[in-house]
Write a structure and sequence with these properties.
Layout lengths: L4 H13 L6 E4 L4 H14 L3 E5 L8 H13 L3 E3 L1 H9 L5 H15 L2
Parallel strand pairs: 1-2, 2-3
Length: 112
């Protein structure tokens, strides 16, 4: 069976989401204009909040990437960066169970 990006959300991801009560999706992909945009548009149409991680996906060109992100935003998706996602999940340094690993990842990535 062949699964395109357009049908991937309803065939795969939705199966794992149903029954969890969660409505927020953090989405990344290979190609912005297909692999991210199509399932993001489907998820938005089904009432999910979509957060598209713009620096964890790339298009077939810079213009195609921008157009794919713009399309998701036009439909109600929210563009975020990977570091935004990491920081929002960590929240603050008082979350001791994850703060050391968080710092290792972020500081290594930004070079401090």
């Amino acid at each position: 069976m062949r699964i395109s990006g357009k049908t991937a959300f309803s065939l795969i991801e939705r199966r794992g989401l149903e029954g969890t009560g969660r409505k927020k999706l953090i989405m990344v992909a290979l190609w912005t204009e297909v692999c991210l945009a199509f399932p993001a548009l489907d998820a938005l149409a089904e009432g999910y909040d979509v957060f598209a991680v713009v620096d964890a996906v790339g298009g077939t060109s810079e213009l195609a990437h921008r157009a794919g992100i713009d399309r998701v935003v036009q439909a109600g998706g929210k563009p975020v960066s990977w570091i935004q996602v990491a920081c929002e999940l960590q929240r603050d340094w008082n979350r001791k169970a994850t703060s050391e690993g968080f710092a290792d990842i972020v500081l290594r990535a930004v070079g401090h």
